[in-house]
């Protein structure tokens, strides 16, 4: 197994043991960390983040200079930013969606999340995407209600129809609601067990590049990775749990190593650890 030119020592070691290169597929959220904490997480893990969510309305209530500092830090690392769906729904319900979109664009985010989870309903997908696009914003839509319990067959069909409508209108991704508990909501029953059949139906309908599964706690994260493998896109992961999710995704966790969907694969090279260190030292010089 050839070690890529320019790889660091740890990168070279991962290739050596058969861990493939994996495109970022986790969308962690910022529930209101101080800017320095967020900056440190970005220094450590930006290469693992698909898009960073500014969760809830914390970024609106916080000192604006701090929120702008967070956005600037993400842009420095090439990490796009999406706002959570709660503020969107409230803006719609209060009759001030254009003003909300103006604030999002001015603060520098890349995407907004839309939804009909608790306040907004009967949204005009085409008009909302048009308003967002006019301000340089992408749109993602969240499937599921925050207080409706686990999906039933009828509810799933209804949300699939809604997802198809939003994608046709120009939304770029669909997010499956799981709130903070992943229990008694969306794809998870009251005990937190994944409804694999419904998850497969969503993946089959929309594809794993388009559908994003909220996985706020360890059991939901591991269940989705065990079921779909390393390509599944997860969101609502706390920043301090991002690295745990990513070692599991790469089969480097004790509970993931023997899962054929996650376990490192490929021919084992005869390079030694000393060889990896030599490669890293040569790179430094």
In short:
The protein is α/β, with parallel strands linked by helices and 285 residues long. Helix content is 44%, strand content 12%. It is built from twelve helices and eight strands.
Low-confidence stretches: none
Looking at this structure, what is the CATH superfamily of the largest domain?
Answer: Aldolase class I
- How large, in whole angstroms, is the Cα Rg? 20 Å
**What's the tally of helices?**
12
CATH fold title of the largest domain: TIM Barrel
β-strand percent reads 5-15%
CATH architecture level-2 label of the largest domain: Alpha-Beta Barrel
Strand/helix succession: HEHEHHEHHEHEHEHEHEHH
CATH class of the largest domain: Alpha Beta
Mean pLDDT: 91
Structural write-up:
It is a single chain. The protein is an alpha/beta fold. The protein has 2 domains: 1-18 and 274-285, no CATH class; 22-265, TIM Barrel (Alpha-Beta Barrel). Helices cover 44% and strands 12% of the residues. It contains 12 helices and 8 strands. It has helices at 9-16, 35-45, 58-61, 64-76, 85-94, 97-107, 125-134, 153-169, 196-206, 218-228, 242-249, 273-284, and strands at residues 26-30, 52-54, 81-83, 111-115, 138-143, 173-176, 211-214, 234-238. It has an 8-stranded parallel beta barrel, surrounded by 7 helices. Strand 1, helix 2 and strand 2 (52-54) form a beta-alpha-beta unit. Helix 1 (9-16) runs antiparallel to helix 12. The longest helix has 17 residues, at 153-169. The protein is globular. It starts with 8 loop residues before the first helix and ends with a helix.
């Amino acid at each position: 197994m050839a070690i890529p030119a320019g790889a660091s020592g740890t990168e070279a070691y991962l290739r050596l043991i058969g861990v493939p290169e994996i495109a970022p597929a986790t969308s962690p959220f910022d529930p209101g960390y101080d800017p320095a904490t967020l900056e440190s997480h970005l220094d450590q893990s930006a290469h693992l983040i698909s898009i960073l969510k500014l969760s809830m309305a914390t970024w609106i209530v916080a000192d604006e200079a701090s929120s702008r500092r967070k956005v600037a830090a993400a842009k420095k690392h090439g990490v796009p930013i999406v706002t959570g769906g709660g503020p969107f729904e409230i803006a719609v319900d209060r009759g001030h969606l254009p003003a909300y979109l103006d604030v999002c664009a001015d603060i520098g985010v890349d995407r907004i999340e839309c939804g009909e989870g608790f306040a907004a309903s009967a949204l005009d997908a085409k008009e909302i995407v048009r308003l967002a696009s006019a301000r340089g914003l992408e749109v993602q839509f969240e499937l599921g209600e925050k207080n409706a319990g686990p999906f039933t067959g009828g509810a799933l069909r209804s949300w699939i129809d809604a997802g198809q409508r939003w994608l046709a209108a120009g939304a770029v991704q669909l997010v499956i609601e799981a709130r903070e508990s992943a229990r008694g909501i969306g794809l998870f029953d009251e005990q937190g067990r994944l409804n694999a059949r419904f998850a497969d139906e969503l993946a089959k309908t929309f594809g794993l590049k388009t559908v994003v599964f909220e996985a706020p706690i360890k059991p939901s994260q591991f269940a989705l990775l065990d079921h779909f493998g390393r390509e599944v896109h997860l969101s609502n992961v706390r920043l301090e749990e991002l690295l745990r999710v990513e070692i599991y995704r790469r089969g480097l966790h004790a509970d993931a190593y023997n899962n054929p969907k996650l376990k490192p694969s490929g021919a084992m090279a005869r390079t030694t650890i000393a060889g990896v260190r030599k490669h890293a030292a040569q790179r430094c010089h």
